[in-house]
Every structure is written in structure tokens, then in C-alpha cells.
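ok here's YhbY family RNA-binding protein:
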Amino acid sequence: MIELTSTQRLSLRARAQALQPFVSVGGNGLTPAVVNEIDRSLKAHELIKIRTHGIERTQRELLMGEICATLDCAPVQRIGNLLVVFRERPAETENLPKPSQAPKGGASKKQLSAGAVPARPLPRRRTAQPPAAPTAARRRATPNPPRRANNTRGR
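and the structure:
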């Protein structure tokens, strides 16, 4: 189980405030499927909230300890039915995809300047259109009706 300093725990609690629960633990407790889902969520997000349903307070404390011991993560916070845990994401530099040589446009600047790859055609320019003639609906429209004077004067 990872140990956190109080300042780390404070900053993680602040980050966790805006999170929604990723995993729910029901009355069946910590099943292998739930453990796998928590592990997958920790790999993806580092900091997750877990909602517990129908579990007593003392059992929630034991559940938090069991999750942290099983998955090697740190307990951050336990409020009511919510548990917050943290595990630092492992650095996976070898599994990252290699950046492509060409930019998204299809060809690099060198290739375009050498003329090896034809450049994209320029978009057509639009010319200004004359204003449209008034339609019958516009001609029939009446201006705003005259405003009424306020003749109530306390009556």
C-alpha cells in the first residue's frame, strides 16, 4: 500500500472533488470483476471514486483497506458511501505509438517544396452576390403597431 503525505492527500482530495464515481461496489462486496474494474480505472485515471451500496461503515473501512492492499494503491478519502483511491500511473514509453513522419495534411513541407507531392488545390473563392429582391412576405409585413398611451392615472 502506498503512503501519502498530508499535502499530497490534500491536493488529491481537491482534485477528486469534481470527479464522478467510476466503480460501484454492491452488496456482494469485492468480487474479482469489481477488482478488475477498479484496476482498469486506476490505470486509466490514477485517481478514482468508488461508490458503495448497502455496506455498513465498519465494512466500508475494511473494504478500503482490502482494495488498497490488493491493488497497491493509496487511500485518499472516505466520505459516507464514497471511497477515493490513488495509484500513480506507470510510465509506459515503449507502448506509446510512434509519431508519424508526415503532418496531418498528408505531406511534409520538404516534400511539398520539392514538388514530389502535389499540393492541395486551393478552395474556390466565392464572389459577392447582389442583394435579393424583396419577397411578397416582406412587402406584406406591417410595421410595429403604434404604442398605446398609459391612460390609467390611478383609476
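+1. The chain has a mean pLDDT of 80.
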